[in-house]
Amino acid sequence: MGTHFLLKPGVPTRIGRGLECDIVLSDPLSSRVHATVVLEDGEYWVRDAGSRNGSFVNGQKIDEARLSEGNLLKVGSSEFTFHQSAELPVDRMRVDHTQTIVHDRIMGRETGPVSADLLRDSQSGQDLLTLHQLSIQLLGCTEPDDVIRASLELLHTRTQASIVGFLWMSDDGQLKPKIIIPEGATSHRLSQSLTEMVVSQAKAIWVNNQKPQGGTTVLQHYADALCVPLLDEGKTIGAIHLYLEKGRFRQSDFDVAIPVANILAVALVRAQKEALLRVDHRRLLVKAAVFDELVGDSKPMTDLKSKITRIARATGCVLIRGESGVGKELVARAVHKSSGRADRPMLSVNCAAIPRELMESQLFGHKKGSFTGADSDHVGWFQQAHTGTLFLDEVGEMTLEGQAKLLRILEGHPFLPVGSTKEVHADVRVIAATNKDLTEFVREGRFREDLYYRLSVFELYIPPLRERGGDIEKLVDHFLEHFARTHGRPSMTLAPDARAKLLAYQWPGNVRQLRNVIDSAVVMAEGCIILPDDLGLRDVGTSQGQLETLRLDFWERKLIVESLQRTAGKVPEAANLLGLGRATLYRKIEEFGIDRK
């Protein structure tokens, strides 16, 4: 037995695929508005609405025909039997045979163009405005419950329903009540059988409750009900119920409930994904021991923080220099978060980790088939960071070809992805970092001089950990507290001699090495106290005759500091001791961020 459709006297009943129709078909052979049934002079007539495949009554193609009892109407591949009766028909799909399907509609998000008929009265126009306002409101909701509640409250106000409820899919695959409005109505039971019918057919259904004499119904206490499923990629993720204790819902109530359900489905899926991303983000932050603040209040770090605040407000490129492991990406994030682009993404790229032959395609993108292995289009890092910030770590490892494209972007020009003929614009602030001497690279022809000056509009030098004094102990305590909590050993402490060993160490690997040492020690310590032998350090400081490091910039800075100390900060005398010109020494002092006092 199929679905019953009630014909309303004085109101034409439109049949077709369009959502503006009164009987909406999922039949691909039917037209958007295929046929219309009307009551004229006490008789029902069916008229073809200029359909593509025609309308048929008892097998005969018609433009217009009078309908009689038992006539078979065929619209596309859908068939209807016409009956006239003084009593409301019984829907045989219902167990209690007491509810009549007034209207149903197949759910789907593809609504097609809006018909002008939808705006034929003020109520339809008001509903469109209401749906627009709901969409804007849900864009600002990040919690799933807030999304659901806002939608239900709108339906409750708009339809004047006695009860509005939402059921969502539980872990056991069952739709269970989640939120009911008003809250005092939580004791009322939402119809499980109505939910099952809606889910099985993927249809929005409007049923009228007819209570038999001396009997009961599934929808006790209610005269009218609407039930609309929420679908995501063909799967049911929830359902909305609306009940009236007295009277009837209007056609416009049914019409507005469907788009509200579609909007709610999209917003709810988005909110659930965002909530999951927030949880994953917090978990990753805890696991990686990432901290937003630059830990330390030594003079070098205080000066660095002050420069970050001033530079962040500017718009030019930033070049961050420092040894490996000092926290160049952390400083880059501090610049980004204090800038006008803080509400947009910052992407980080390690140029040294990209194969040289793939450098251009990774940074600037490529088109499918542009080279062997390019099986699909790739959006480069610059396009992905559009309107935000792009952090290029180890920028000295870029190829000369990549440097040329980078320079054009920094000068405001568009660029061509590999294999593309269409130029791309990218509005990106570039923060570059290096642990190499780029001026030496320029002299050797390995780095473009014009790009160097473009990148170094603002420079930030991060001091090595060994020069940060009391910051070492602050970082030790920070990482100890974090990893003790992460590894489930909250009572872990440092033995005094182990702490002394950490503070005396030179830390050639800087903050990264300190972090890894504490992480390992918390895991490897047998008891609740970390002993010196638990630390992954071979010695304290530097053994006699063994150099701390072979890095030239380390010794260059050390010699400059020593010469200034010997000459009481007098640059001309220090330059003579070092065998350098005064201008060169002034530049080196500025590059290394050395305090002459």
Tell me about this structure.
With 597 residues, this protein is α/β, with parallel strands linked by helices. It has helices at 122-139, 144-159, 192-201, 251-288, 299-312, 328-337, 359-364, 381-384, 400-410, 438-443, 449-455, 471-486, 496-504, 510-524, 552-566, 571-578, 582-592, and strands at residues 13-16, 23-24, 35-40, 43-48, 55-57, 60-62, 64-66, 72-75, 78-81, 99-106, 163-169, 175-181, 203-209, 224-232, 235-244, 318-321, 346-350, 389-393, 429-434, 458-461, 493-494, 529-530. The strands form five sheets. The chain has a six-stranded antiparallel sheet, sandwiched between helices. Helix 9 links the parallel strand 18 (389-393) and strand 19 (429-434). Helix 2 packs antiparallel against helix 4 (251-288) and helix 16 crosses helix 17. The radius of gyration is 36 Å and the shape is elongated. It starts with 12 loop residues before the first strand and ends in a 5-residue tail after the last helix. The model is unreliable at 90-99, 111-118, 210-218 and 539-545 (pLDDT under 50).
